[in-house]
Input
Amino acid sequence: MSTYALTDSTTMLRRNLRRMRRNPGLTLFVAGIPLVLLLLFVYVFGGTLGAGLPGATGSDRGAYADYLAPGMLLFTVVGGAQLTAIGVAVDMTEGIIARFKTMAVWRGSVLAGHVISNMIQTLVAVLLVLAVAIAIGFSPNASALDWLAAAGLMTFLTLALTWLSVALGLVAKSVESASNLPMFLMLLPFLGSGFVPTDAMPAGLSWFAEHQPFTPINETLRGLLTGTHIGSDGIVALAWCAVITVGSYVWSLRLYARGPRSL
Amino acid sequence: MILVGGLRKSFGDHLVLDGIGFRVEEGSVFALLGPNGSGKTTTVHILSTLLAADAGDIRIDGHDLATDPDGVRRVIGVTGQFSAIDGLLSGRENLMLMADLHHLARPQGQARAQELLEQFDLVDAADKPAVTYSGGMKRRLDLAMTLVGSPRVIFLDEPTTGLDPRSRRTMWEVIRALAAGGVTIFLTTQYLDEADELADRIAVLDHGTIVASGTPEELKRRLHDGHITLRFADARSFAAAGALLDVRGADEEALTLQVPSDGTVPTLRTVLSQLAEHAIELDDLSIHTPDLDDVFFAVTGNNHR
Output
């Protein structure tokens, strides 16, 4: 059965990439929102927020750009995840998915095609956001090895969130709810260390912020790119990514195996 | 060949298929008729491996569906009620996608795609996105995609619903040609004329059971519903004929009588000469031979006519 796993997944990937090329607005949308937020936070709030960073002396927009950039990269991945959920939900409403299920193709190939094409789309958007961040004052001091590790972490996170959003796209009853379900993911970077340090938050929120997955991932990325202390965050970040990936993968395959929706 | 026995399926408390069985010979066309909600689509979903049955033996071209679903998938093609095409891809790309999934070599796939585009009159629109196609073109592309892998058994779920008369004719021709080429065809339809036109055997499904089956002729014969309707010029002739003939139904206001008849010329002549002998003036005569509509309404107990 899995003798054609790779061939079939490649065929499906080609289908998804072709669909993306026909609809380039979506890829721009993935990068668009984080770019707007990036400019907004650095230029509008950055002067003031930078002053509140530990060790800051007066208004420091550049320091805030350094602080914000890793979080914006994570936020880009989350935005990509939302589009994945929408894309999967839209695809599931198309009759062609039922056709695939009646053919002797590898069962996982449809989802694999979605995951890989969306990962490519998201990672392209991440590079775009990174380039703009550097252009407006983000100054990473990472070594080649740090960059490689950062790229690896971003890819792993993208894999995890893409599988999660595939599951959300499958579980959604409609395209509308598929676009709403990943909203909680959008909030998580804000309720963590992405935009401001967690110490300044009220006690309960600060506890949540420190224990939710995005904070260790954010701190690890920040450490790799700007040299802050990583400590145990690295392991915790990888563990979160692994748990989300495996859990969502199993959940997605189970959802996909369900019968046709309209009966 | 399709062999089905004791097929049962329920969704929660709702029993959809209550132990149906039938046999479809290789290269023949089998039509499953039934009103909306009778379980036709569920049957197609189960036979095409989309849904698991609760019970029943199903063998398709020698493959046991329960133990070898992939074997079944390799020999079947399915065209469902809703178009199973990728709207963002062109017609040719859709066909190539199928060729790739059937693991055809590239040149072989391209040749097959071109052949089908020509056969289904889609050459002019081959490189336009399928979302721009008309309903008839979408349905043709859909069926063409089903045929890329040269399936031995084809399931067509209401293949002509929503098509204009011309597209419908084209679809019928395609289906006949496929059957002539030895492909086994299982189709569902709400159109009785379609079943009459295409099917070698028909089964009528109602509330999850097969209430009648046979060739279209057998089903029609079973009904004994043939009659002629006689209309008379005045009440006197109407009354006289009523006394003379073996009448099955009468309408005093319209001055019409219904007389059982198979509609053949000798029986008509008998009735007419009887009337002539008694000098009864006949205004109008019409022949009613039973069609599948009659069968359908009779066996599904749905006398809305």
The domain at 2-221 of chain B is CATH 3.40.50.300 (Rossmann fold). Chain B has a mean pLDDT of 89.
